[in-house]
Write a structure and sequence with these properties.
This protein has 163 residues and is an alpha/beta fold. It has four helices and eleven strands; from the N terminus they run H-E-E-E-H-E-H-E-H-E-E-E-E-E-E. Strand 3, helix 2 and strand 4 form a beta-alpha-beta unit.
Length: 163
């Protein structure tokens, strides 16, 4: 699927917000769309970590069942929290997408994968691999709190989360 393509079942966030309004929170932080899927949605799983991607790697190596992994990397662009090998694992394990409040690397390879990816940017620098962080905790990105299990919708216009 090319970056410009939109699956027939894709939900546009602008239309969804018009329909549901204040039932949804809109993340105002400006993320880049970096994956091969322009539109993706699913139940959120969450990770809070800082410049350490061990939990991202281990979580995306488990069955995703169409979920979206939301990673609060503290907005750091100092190291990448996901590269092409971890993204390939996400595809192989059935994840719909990944939202990273931080950086990725291997962006050209990731753009060719059937995976939705939103991140603040990229950095070729590897992260630590100590496993520091928390899984399935409430994370706050901008002024929006995301809890594990909440529905999340992403497209080139932005990110919506059910309240």
């Amino acid at each position: 699927m090319s970056k410009a393509s939109t699956p027939a079942e894709a939900i546009n966030t602008a239309d969804l917000y018009d329909e549901r309004g204040d039932e949804l929170a809109s993340i105002s932080l400006q993320f880049q769309s970096l994956g091969g899927r322009s539109h993706f949605s699913g139940r959120a799983r969450t990770i809070r970590c800082f410049q350490d991607n061990a939990l991202v790697k281990s979580t995306l190596a488990t069955p995703g069942n169409g979920s979206v992994l939301v990673v609060d990397g503290g907005g750091s662009l100092g190291t990448a929290l996901m590269g092409d090998m971890i993204a390939e694992s996400a595809v192989a394990n059935g994840w719909a997408g990944v939202v990273i409040n931080g950086a990725i690397r291997d962006r050209e390879a990731i753009a060719r994968l059937d995976l939705g990816v939103k991140a603040l940017g990229s950095n070729p620098r590897k992260s630590a691999k100590a496993g520091a962080g928390d899984v399935d905790v409430d994370v706050k990105i901008g002024d929006v709190t995301i809890r594990t299990g909440a529905m999340i919708w992403c497209d080139p216009d932005g990110i919506l989360v059910e309240r």
